[in-house]
């Protein structure tokens, strides 16, 4: 690794200092290397290694020290970044964006320890404006977008369950699953009905919901002698519920498409024309004569 000045400040890209600061620090580094007679080694991995080596060496050979004006500017710029944000704060901020989505700033602020909501709001605004300056931006964005995709999936599942449950006045007794060819041999429709209805009641995206669902099964008189269902683990219940959710989403989609097709078949509703005449049944009434 090429040498750096011993007393250069430790600035991180996630602290979002003004870009001009990095220009001045780079100039300082180049001059330091010139003073110690540093020679740039050739990088054999580069296709034009000789040319790249020559260009880097030229930068060092022509380097000049920072003048008084630039030194003053550097000190001023060093106060303009997020100096009170360290790597731990940054990692908490990224994980919070992954967990809650970039727009839920209220919950993101709660996740970053030691920072006020105002500080997190200010940092977030700058982060999204200048995040392309970060070295690992592709990795960071992939992490956040994976989390946001999970959030959207949860919203989609909640909507599907709300729609399905909403079709019945007494879903715990009336709900039917459209299995198609995916019925399976292990679970009965009565068990599946209870799983879906109770999952919806508990809140499917709640933490440890499948542990709670398992406990509800064990406490239910309905399944007092159902040893199969009572012996399922939380993970097995989750897998079964995921299968049922997929079936429900497919059913909802088919019903939605069927409804659209029926609406299209019926055609648009005929618009009733306003009759501007004097109210004759055929709409062809004559104008009333004015009495003089």
Automatic annotation (TrEMBL):
Q: Which SUPFAM superfamilies match?
A: HAND domain of the nucleosome remodeling ATPase ISWI, Homeodomain-like
* Record region (Disordered): 255-292
What keywords would UniProt list here? Chromatin regulator, Hydrolase, Nucleus
Top-rank taxon: Eukaryota
Query: Compositional bias (Basic residues) spans?
Result: 263-274
Q: Name one GO cellular component term.
A: chromatin
Q: Where in the cell is it found?
A: Nucleus
Domain SANT: where? 80-132
Xref: InterPro entries: Homeodomain-like_sf (IPR009057), ISWI_HAND-dom (IPR015194), ISWI_HAND-dom_sf (IPR036306), SANT/Myb (IPR001005), SANT_dom (IPR017884), SLIDE (IPR015195)
Q: What Pfam family does this protein match (any one)? A: HAND
GO terms, biological process: nucleosome organization
GO molecular-function terms, A-Z: ATP hydrolysis activity; ATP-dependent chromatin remodeler activity; DNA binding; histone binding; nucleosome binding
- Write out the biased-composition intervals (Basic and acidic residues): 275-284
Kindly give the PROSITE patterns that the UniProt entry links to this protein. Answer: SANT (PS51293)
| Gene3D superfamilies the UniProt entry points to | Homeodomain-like (1.10.10.60), iswi atpase (1.20.5.1190), ISWI, HAND domain (1.10.1040.30)
Give the protein family.
Answer: Belongs to the SNF2/RAD54 helicase family. ISWI subfamily.
Record-given protein name: Swi snf-related matrix-associated
